[in-house]
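Deliverable D5.2: sample structural annotation.
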Amino acid sequence: MSFGIAPFILSIYYLQTYDFEIGLAIFIHYSAIILSFIGAINWGRNDTEKSAKLFYLSVMPSVIAFIAIFYDFPNNIIILSIGYFVAWFIDIALLIKKKEFYGYLLMRTIITTLVIYLHIHIM
């Protein structure tokens, strides 16, 4: 299991065991930060490719994460879940033709599925 998933699981444990509001806030903020970082992966690739399309696609997850913070529960969780799906779809669309990224795409598919499941789990 990726250590990046641990804060999701721990915040769910905290919101179910101790304080729902604080645990939910930790979950949402961590989720938004991670979603932004996922977009930054493609943004970094654009340093060499210089593609306007890649630039717009790479900032989309960050914009979705930013928007989600301003919504109330459970809408923010739904928006973040959609953001993870969009980020995954962007990765698939950009990297599916490059065989050297198949391992990365498999890892992203597994982790994205787990993260979306955890988002649905708290609703």
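Annotation notes: Residues 3-121 form one domain. The mean pLDDT is 91.
The annotation will be released with the project's public dataset once the embargo ends.
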